Amino acid sequence: MAWIEIVDEPEASGRLSELYARMVDPDYGRVDTILRIHSLHPEGLRAHYELYREVMTGTPTLRKVDREMIALVVSVINECHY
């Protein structure tokens, strides 16, 4: 299993803290892990967030949980172990 070092919200400072403030999921009150894995490279995080936001809001008739389930099924089918 892979292990990726991340900076959690309470430890974030500077640019990372600014980005995290924009990325807090209003339903869960935290930044999603899939985004926090980029915390050591804030500009990579910003780019991933822009893509993630578009994908997760591009179909307003689907709830976030439904999109997450679709992503899970696709990952299983593709044998992605992330």
Care to describe what's here?
The protein is 54% helix and 0% strand. With 82 residues, the chain is mainly alpha-helical. The chain has one domain. α1 packs parallel to α3. The longest helix is centred in the middle third of the chain and has 16 residues. It is globular. The model has no long low-confidence stretch (mean pLDDT 89).
List keywords for this structure.
globular; mainly alpha; 82 residues; 54% helix; single chain
| Helical content (DSSP H or I, runs of 4+) | 40-55%
Tertiary shape: globular
Distance between the termini: 8 Å
What count of domains describes the coordinates? 1
- Beta-strand fraction estimate: under 5%
Number of helices: 4
Count of individual beta strands: 0
- Average per-residue pLDDT, rounded, comes to 89
Low-confidence stretches: none
The secondary structure category is: mainly alpha
Succession of helices and strands: HHHH
Largest sheet: none
Q: What's the alpha carbon Rg, rounded to whole Å? A: 14 Å
